[in-house]
Amino acid sequence: MNALVTLTSVAPADAQLLDNLWQFYELESSFWSGEDIDADGRFNSLSGFLERLGAPDAEQWGYLLHHDGQVAGLLLIGLQQLQERTIKEFADLYVLPKYRGLGIASEVLRQTVMASDHPWLICVFRDDRKALRFWERAFERLPFSSVRELLSQEYPDLREFIVNDPNHLHAAMA
Known about the structure:
Elements: E1 5-9, H1 15-33, H2 47-51, E2 60-67, E3 70-82, E4 85-95, H3 104-111, E5 120-125, H4 129-141, E6 147-150, E7 158-163
Parallel strand pairs: 4-5
Antiparallel strand pairs: 1-2, 2-3, 3-4, 5-7, 6-7
């Protein structure tokens, strides 16, 4: 990919932009989630997340994705308690349709998950076929040190994966 992909932390001044991008994400997700709009014509909002922007004890972070200087999507990262430890979750990634197929999502993975030295949780809704295909291809072609699927009964609508876990360096996808 020749284009520059950058991630910019979402500041309180970016709240409206992030919420607008979130509406596009929710619109596309509604095809498989079945979610309806509210009385104001909007999908679920990120209002709770947006209220905590800039908080010193934040457990969630938002990023705007830029492609050659243009806003191209969003990324949300959070902390989760998993197997008696706190782990970062690569929670929501959305790339605007115009920018798909340019390798932006893979580059975001390189700049976040692949560039860190700790394990990450990846959760994908079972009904989100596009996201599942993306992650299956990413697990095959990107140099994750390990990929392990969790078999959780707690969230049957999700497929959960732990990647780059030093405790499971030789783990294969379940």
